[in-house]
Structures are given as structure tokens and as C-alpha cells.
Target: GST N-terminal domain-containing protein
Amino acid sequence: MTQPRIVLYSALLCPFAHRARIALKASGAVYETVEIDLKNKPAWYAPNINPASKVPAISYGAPPDSDVTKPPAGTFLLPESALVVQFIASLYPQIDYKDPIIRAKASFAQLQWDNLVAGRWRKYQFEGSEQDLEPLLEGLKQFSDSVPEEILGDEYGVADIILGPFVTRLFIFANEDIGKWAPGSGPKLVSALSGPEYDKLRKLGAKLDKWPALQETIDNDILVKKFTEILKNH
Amino acid sequence: MTQPRIVLYSALLCPFAHRARIALKASGAVYETVEIDLKNKPAWYAPNINPASKVPAISYGAPPDSDVTKPPAGTFLLPESALVVQFIASLYPQIDYKDPIIRAKASFAQLQWDNLVAGRWRKYQFEGSEQDLEPLLEGLKQFSDSVPEEILGDEYGVADIILGPFVTRLFIFANEDIGKWAPGSGPKLVSALSGPEYDKLRKLGAKLDKWPALQETIDNDILVKKFTEILKNH
Model:
């Protein structure tokens, strides 16, 4: 049986859209990508695909030759990166954890990132005040504590998909010193993360560096170039 | 094989803890409940069960006669209501949706409640300014739009568990006029919800009213009595 048609509405720089690309790549699904220019969104996008006007979104089951800018009525449309990943994992259970305890531990680590790291990192990268470093380090420590040993082996799962784009970007931007901070603050952050309390964070980063599904769906050079520009104008 | 021991740390009034009670009841799991007094939390709770000091949390697999206030090392402890429900659904898949599309639609409705209703409802109930009604009604309309027809039948699933405590409380508090608002504002809200744009919200409420797993894990009289007091002192 042919797999129903999957169209991903994506944007190269967006870490949320990156989650969807990794999930589709890791699952072995056949899919088409429609690149959405976030600075100049096409007029059809919000009314026809996602009223919230964000990426990613996917369409599932549109007829093979139908217009990707206007899926016919009855096509299943789904926005929100976490839901898209969950949906893909429902279709391709091999990318999800088999053990309920490991799955729950991995979900808790994702929540710790959302609650304790995401906002603090954005603040530090885009405002870069020295006083924002300590709360970020504390959040990264608690996140690192929460990463279950069980997901740091050779297997990749949903936590790698959900966390991957964010953990990877944190290390890229810090290493390349791309932030509204005093020059050298990025590498200084990386150096602060060399302590034993961040062991699992570093292991996760190293694991993600070796993952084809992630590396083949990101373009580091463009990311660095574009974010350097974005921060210049921020 | 005996099921590993499940201990739920709960609080009767808390809608998040209510999710966990419904999930356990609906799944047919055998479980013990430890009631945590949220106004006077026991000293052992945060260090031994949940560092965030919130309910619900569960312990899974503690030895049968071990102390519930101090589960031995190696016991799996899990906080956060959505993760607890997800974990229970991993153990008892019969409470989850089989169809990935229905599951995704239900997850989207849950997200709409979180993003568009939860905060607005809390604001309206606890501040009750007339100007807060319109945004709440708009949020409830968008939420109602998002509820998939497929979950409004006779079957109960994860969306009913996640949304149930909140949808049910909204109708109870509005009907009983329990809020920091002008007297009569609660029934006025219920009356505003009689329009066709809220059809699916009302259907969901009616469905939840008939669900033993929900009704047997809530005490409406105590809820009304306690919240009347809480609002008096708020």
C-alpha cells in the first residue's frame, strides 16, 4: 500500500520546523517540503494551512497531484511541532521509546528544557546581560540532571527529535559566539558547561552531532550567517 | 503477574491531580492514594517525592510494604499531570486513541484549551472584570471549534482525561456562580455558551457528566464549598 501523501510546511532556520524534518527523516517517511519564507509569508498559508501562521505544519493524505497551496477539503492538516512529531511517531512507532518508564523520563527532560532553559537561553542570547548567565547555567544544570542515562546510548528517539534542534543550536551559537552579548561570552558559556554537572547535556550534544537525521536536515553555515545578520539588526 | 505498586500523591481539589485519578480509574489500575494538604505540605513531600512540590506525582514499583513517604532508591517517581496520564496510557493503552489522526486532533484541542482558555478563565473567575468575558468567550469558541467530532461519541480517551477536570469545573463554577465577579455572571456565561458556536464544548461537558471515571473521582459539594471560601479570601 502506498503511504498517504505527506507535505511538510517548513522553514530552514526554524528549530520547531527542524523537529518535523528530523522526525520525517528518522522515520523513513516519503515527504515533500514546502519552504515558507517567514519574513514574507505567502497569502495562502494562514487561510489554507495554519490559521496561526506558524511553521511547521503538515498535510496528510492530500491527493497526489493536488495543489500544495490549497489542499482539498478533507485533507488532514496539523500544526504545532510537538503534535507533528507525536503524529509521525504514531505512524512510525519505531522512532518512539518502547519502555513506558524511559518514555516518561524523556518527556520529563523535554519539559525541564521548556520550563528552565528555553526562555533563559533566548534571553541570554538576545539580551546577553551578564546577570542572565547564572539562571541559564542553573537551568541547564537541572535539565542535564533530568536527562535519563537510558537515552544517551546508540538509539535515537523522540527526545532527540524534540530537544535536538535546540540543544544543537545552543552549542553552535555559543561556540560561534553568536549572541547579543560581550564578545567571547559564547565560548565562555561552553567552557562553563565543561563541568561534571553538565555531563549528560554534553553527552546529548555529542550524540546529536553524530545523528544523520539531524545533521542532514540542518545547514550550519546558513544558520550562522543568518543569525549573525538577525542579531546585528535586533 | 502482579502489577507493580502504584501510589498517587494527590489533592482532592486540584484539577491536575484529578487528571491522574481519572486516568488510573479509567485504566482499571490498582492504586493507592496519598492525600497531600496543599496548604500545609508535609516536610517529606518535596525532598522524597517531587522537588517541585506540586501534585500529582506517582511512584511506580515501590516494594509492597515500603513507606509511601519515603520510597526506596530505584523507585520510579514521576510528577506533572500530563506526563502521569501519558505514562498510565503507556501501561494501559486501552485508554488512548487507536487512530493517529484522532489522537492528533484531540491533542490539538488540548493545546487550544491550554493556550486560549485556561488563563482567560482563571482571570475571569478570579478577577471577574466585565472586559475579561469577551476574550474568554472567543477562546472557548476557538476551543469548541477544535474539538474533533470523533471524540464526542460513547468512547472515552486521553482528551477526556486531560480536559475533563477543567471543562467540568468551568461548568460547575459558572452554574453555581462561584467567582470574583458580579453576582449572576456565572449563569450569564453558561447562557452565552448556549449558542451553536459552542455546540461541541457543551457536548463534551454533557459527555463528561456521564463518565463514572470522572464523577467518582470528584466531590462537587466539597469543591463548591471550598472554592466559595477560597474566593472569599482571595
Q: What stands out?
A: Chain A has a mean pLDDT of 96. The longest helix of chain A spans residues 100-127. The two ends of chain A are 50 Å apart (CA to CA). DSSP finds ten helices and four strands in chain A.
